[in-house]
Amino acid sequence: MKLLFILNEPPYGNERVYNGLRLAGSVLKNEKEAEVTVFLMADAVLAAKAGQKTPDGYYNVERMLKRVLAGKGKILLCGTCMDARGLTEAEMMEGAKRSTMDELSATTVAADKVLVF
To answer: SUPFAM superfamilies recorded for this chain (predicted)?
Structure first.
């Protein structure tokens, strides 16, 4: 089964990105045949910024994204959203890939399920 997670919200301030990544990680852990793609757009592109430091005991979305990659998931970043926020590819975590709306469109059509957070 192919699953696409589209995350729109900022990585901190509410828990939508956190919960979306929790679910993506759980799917990868429990469903070995699942193919998971996480597409970060709008303020969610900030979730893939490298070098995040959070207080002890607080979740860290960069680490959560690394778990998705370790489970053979894909992390795609909206290039237009990156540009609007002044983010460069060099600032983003290893394994996250700059993407386009065309790639999101193709991934959406190919997905068995699309979840939006």
So the answer is: DsrEFH-like
